[in-house]
Amino acid sequence: MSRNLFYCRIGAGLGITCVTVTCLLTIDIVIAVEHPRLLIDSDRACSMKAAFSLFVMSTIAQFMMGIIDIVLLCKPKNEEATSNTECKHFKIIIHFCSGAGIFIASLIYGIKYPGRVRWSFWMALVAGFFAIANAVLWLLTQQTKRYLEKAGVNVKNLEDGKMADGTERE
Fold first, then answer.
1. Is 161 left (phi over 0), alpha (psi -120 to 50) or beta?
2. Which of 46, 65, 92, 165 has its CA at a distance of 20 to 30 angstroms from the CA of residue 85?
């Protein structure tokens, strides 16, 4: 394993994504069990279909981000294209959009069905906060990297697990 300064954000992002997916799967399963014919039945309210669809799309997006993080953790760190394959901007956008989708779906679900607001609803809100936190993590670490580059620090050495001057860490 590399001791890269910016490598830990992939692991932290994967951990946060796993928690987010777990929380989202909870609300997906609860809604699917409570309303088994939700998407088939035309008598159901469109608001419930919209909320469920947003939850499912957010779950799929977060799962996809988890797969990307696993691939990034498993690939060799000494590849030249490493900085190009981290998909920083893509990850930030997907996490923010996923968090927004979760909050919108929770809002619809909570307003239209206030009697059904139970622990699974709160798990969905936690998932939304974790999705936004993951986007902020990637945003801040990328910004830190840019500030270091502007300050004249050799970020390539830091990415290789060395000190800024190129010497090995103790």
1. left
2. 165
